[in-house]
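Session log. Operator J.P. requested a structure for one protein chain; no other inputs attached. Running the standard single-chain path with token output.
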Amino acid sequence: MNRRGTVRAGAAFACLAASAFAGRAGAAQNAPAIPTASAAGAGGAAADAADTAPAFPFSVGEHLTYDVKFGIVHVGSGTLEVAGVEPLRGRDAFHTVFRIKGGTIFYHVNDTLESWFDTRTMASLRFAQHLDEGGKVRERDYEIYPDRANFVLNRKPPQPSVPDPLDDGSFLYFVRTLPLNVGDTYTFNKYFNPKANPVTIRVLRRERIQVPAGTFNAVVVQPIIKTSGIFSEHGEAQVWFSDDSSHIVLQMKSKLSFGSLDLYLRDYQPGRGPAANRVAEAAGDTGARAAHAAHGAGSARAGGGAGIEGDSTPTAARPSGAPPPSTSPR
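Structure written below.
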């Protein structure tokens, strides 16, 4: 087995896991609205604006931690968080951060992906990749302009984009707003780089699974993207979302030519808004509710023996300005 390729694939898997979710999907029905999310801790106008922005199943302060494994071997860890709400070019933007770190004695990875997207429309405004893989450092900074339908990479000439674009970070959060009913197929055409469109999401089945963070009811999704990588048409990648209104990512699995590469939720800390309360209320056992109460806003921690059982009624809001569903479930 190629050790360098194995660990590098770990970073690629984590990055592609987010970028597989591009654009706005079509579904059989619109998702009902949810209460407005709070942006507690965000100062000034950003906080005031967030109070009236459309609500989403996540809020500032949400933090998820993952174990990364190749087969049964632990090769690293990752985190995904909503760091805050920040002003950007006259808009208020969620700032999300994804980090993955790990490796072997031969090869190490320390990658960070940051995304800024509009708190009302979820349109991407800025996306940054800071990659340190095997001692090779790469910086990719994208400025994305929804009004112009173009983007700029590292201050080079503008390149064409799409209306209401989504980047690697905002895609993952966007999918969490979808109903994810078993049997649905969603087709996306809003990845900010049109070369990767379209993206397909298939909702396969429901399962009850156990991860280090606890035991959960889950809905299983298969993402398919125009690539030769992990989420290609011929791949077997799957993502498990919690089967409740929060749709947090519980685990991801992908079969590669040299083995299976997997991510498992180890720790979940909800944010400081109504989304956090809904997750706590959806807990299906006493241990889970106790874990949430012990952490204030709530958390599911490895070692606590507590998981979150989700309800089966999605309550996510469609972003303002997003087109109505157009693709029927298959």
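Operator note: Residues 1-51, 278-330 have pLDDT under 50 and may be disordered.
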